[in-house]
Write a structure and sequence with these properties.
Helix content: 25-40%
Largest sheet: 5 strands, mixed
CATH superfamily of the largest domain: NAD(P)-binding Rossmann-like Domain
CATH class of the largest domain: Alpha Beta
CATH architecture of the largest domain: 3-Layer(aba) Sandwich
Shape: globular
Strand order of the largest sheet: 1-2-3-4-5
Order of helices and strands: HEHEEHHHEEHEHEHEHEHEH
Strand content: 15-25%
Number of domains: 2
Number of helices: 11
CATH topology of the largest domain: Rossmann fold
Oligomer: single chain
Number of strands: 10
Distance between the termini: 37 Å
Length: 281
C-alpha cells in the first residue's frame, strides 16, 4: 500500500489540483469553511465525498456528490454564526468516536471503489454513542442548491473563510427590517395559549432532526404553497438560524400578510434560550 502525504493546508487555490487524481474523497475535517470547500471541489470535479463529523458523543456519516444525490449545501444551506458551535476544546469528543465514524467512512469508500452495496447517498446516519443507537434520515437533493441544483450559481471555488464569517455574522437580512420575536417571547406566548401558527421554512431532512411541530413549507416552495396559509392568523416563521425565515416573512408581507413575524436566531436560538435538549445541527 502506498500512502502519499501533503504537508500543506487545503485551500481554494490547491483543492482542485490535489483532488483531481483521486477517485474518492473522504472528508474528516473539523471546521465549516473546509467542509464547504471540500464539498464544492468534489462537485466541480465530479468526485464522491464521503462525509463524517463528530461532536461530543454523537457522529454522522453520509456520501455527498453522487450524480443523483444531495451535497453538503443541501444539508446545510448556510453556515452557523461564528462562535455559536463550541470547539472540541469547549465541547469535547468521546475518544473512541473518531474511530467509529472513521470506520464507517472507510466502509463507504470501499463500497464506492468496489461498486457494490447500498451507498449512504441520500441517507444520513446519526450515531449516538451514549445510547449506542443508530438513526437514519432521508436526504434529498435541493433543486435550489447553488452548487448541485437545477440552476447552479457556483462555478468556481470561493473564499470560504469569508463565506462562513460574513454570512454567519449577518443579521438575517439587514435591509429587510422584518418584525421579529425572540425564542423566549415565543415560548411565553405558546404557554399562555395564544393562537400562533408556526411556519417552518427549512428542508424536510432538517425537520426530521428537530422541530417545533410547525407547518413545513420549505422556502423554495413558499410562492406556490402560500394558499396553505391564513392571513388572519398570527404567523411566526422560523428556519435554522433566522436568515431563510426572514426572507419568508418579507415575501409574505409583500403578499399582503400583516401579522407575520420572524423567530430571531431560528431554531438554534430555541435550543440556546429555551430547550437545551433540542438537537443542534
Amino acid at each position: 500500500m502506498k500512502i502519499t502525504t501533503y504537508d500543506t493546508r487545503l485551500t481554494s487555490e490547491n483543492a482542485l489540483e490535489l483532488f483531481r487524481d483521486y477517485d474518492v474523497i473522504v472528508d474528516g475535517t473539523d471546521n465549516f469553511p473546509t467542509r464547504y470547500l471540500v464539498n464544492d471541489a468534489c462537485l466541480l470535479l465530479g468526485k464522491p465525498n464521503v462525509y463524517g463529523s463528530i461532536f461530543r458523543f454523537e457522529g454522522q456519516v453520509t456520501v455527498f456528490g453522487t450524480p443523483d444525490g444531495p451535497c453538503y449545501r443541501c444539508l446545510y444551506p448556510e453556515p452557523p454564526p461564528p462562535g455559536l458551535v463550541p470547539s472540541c476544546a469547549e465541547g469535547g469528543v468521546l475518544g473512541v468516536l473518531p474511530g467509529i465514524v472513521g470506520s464507517l467512512q472507510a466502509l463507504e469508500a470501499i463500497k464506492l471503489i468496489l461498486g457494490r452495496g447500498d451507498l449512504l447517498a441520500g441517507r444520513l446516519v446519526l450515531f449516538d454513542a451514549l445510547a449506542l443507537k443508530f438513526r437514519e434520515l432521508k436526504l434529498r437533493k435541493n433543486s435550489h442548491c447553488p452548487m448541485c441544483g437545477v440552476h447552479p450559481k457556483i462555478h468556481q471555488l470561493i473564499d470560504y473563510n469569508e463565506f462562513c464569517g460574513i454570512r454567519g455574522e449577518e443579521e438575517p437580512e439587514s435591509d429587510l427590517h422584518v418584525p421579529e420575536v425572540t425564542a423566549r417571547e415565543l415560548k411565553q406566548r405558546l404557554e399562555q395559549g395564544d393562537d400562533l401558527f408556526i411556519l417552518d421554512v427549512r428542508e424536510p431532512h432538517e425537520y426530521q432532526i428537530c422541530n417545533l411541530k410547525g407547518h413545513l413549507i420549505p422556502l423554495g416552495e413558499l410562492p406556490r404553497r402560500v394558499h396553505e396559509l391564513d392571513s388572519s392568523h398570527e404567523i411566526v416563521a422560523h428556519c435554522r438560524s433566522g436568515k431563510r425565515s426572514a426572507q419568508a416573512v418579507d415575501f409574505l408581507r409583500k403578499a399582503g400578510f400583516r401579522k407575520v413575524y420572524n423567530l430571531r436566531g431560528g431554531i438554534l436560538s430555541w435550543s440556546t434560550e429555551v430547550d437545551p435538549t433540542f438537537a443542534r445541527y
